[in-house]
Specification:
8 helices; rod-shaped; mainly alpha; about 5% strand
């Protein structure tokens, strides 16, 4: 016969937690796919400046997130099935997968915290290089044309102009074709000035990294509860009398 009493309650509680874990995996997979195909990041990170492509560190993290979401859905299904079947083998495999996932998440979290500014920094350097080429080179030169295309894409996507207030104002008035969008201007006490592209790049990636961080914390809490419940249920199955 199967487990009884409190252990039976734990069995169904673990099933519920695993179902939530499976749903969380689906949500993370969906969010990762949305971040991968988000128009703002796609417009910027698909750019090329001559032979140099925009930094793809952000996309590497997104691909890892897609893999994590898919693995979570598989592990969640494994845990649901193992709980309902009261299988020590499946529950043991489920617990091992959770430990590995949790360790990977902690490692990824530490790496992400240490390098949280790296993505925005690389993109800002790419933008600065393109802006410098667009302003300094002969307008008829092919590299200048390519650089202007890259800079205008940044400006139109992020509604900004220039790398700082002084450079932004000079960019706006000397090369007005680089900042054709009125939305790049904001009202201040000094009048209407262009928005800083460095600040807009920081905002773009900090919002997305914050979303990823919140999702990781929620998943980590669920995983801790699941590891505890799976071990209790596994011990309960082992101690129950089977006929």
């Amino acid at each position: 016969m199967g487990v009884e009493g409190c252990t039976k309650c734990i069995k169904y509680l673990l099933f519920v937690f695993n179902f939530v874990f499976w749903l969380a995996g689906g949500i993370i997979l969906g969010v990762a796919l949305w971040l991968r195909h988000d128009s703002q990041t796609t417009n910027i990170l698909y750019l090329h400046l001559g032979d140099k492509q925009a930094p793809n560190t952000f996309y590497i993290g997104i691909y890892i997130l897609i893999a994590v979401g898919a693995v979570m859905m598989f592990v969640g299904f494994l845990g649901c099935y193992g709980a309902i079947q009261e299988s020590q083998c499946l529950l043991g495999t489920f617990f091992t997968c959770l430990v590995i996932l949790f360790a990977c998440e902690v490692a990824a979290g530490i790496w992400g915290f240490v390098n949280k500014d790296l993505v925005a920094k690389d993109v800002k350097q790419f933008y600065d290089q393109a802006l410098q080429q667009a302003l300094q080179q002969d307008p008829s030169h092919s590299d200048a044309t390519n650089a202007k295309t890259v800079v205008k894409t940044f400006h139109e996507t992020l509604d900004c102009c220039g790398a700082n207030t002084i450079m932004a104002i000079s960019t706006l008035f000397v090369n007005n074709d680089l900042c054709p969008n009125e939305k790049t201007l904001v009202e201040t006490a000094q009048g209407r000035i262009p928005q800083d592209c460095h600040k807009k790049i920081d905002e773009l990636f900090s919002e997305k990294l914050y979303l990823i961080g919140v999702a990781a914390i929620v998943v980590a809490v669920i995983m801790i509860f699941e590891m505890i419940l799976s071990m209790i249920l596994c011990c309960g199955i082992r101690n129950s009398t089977v006929y």
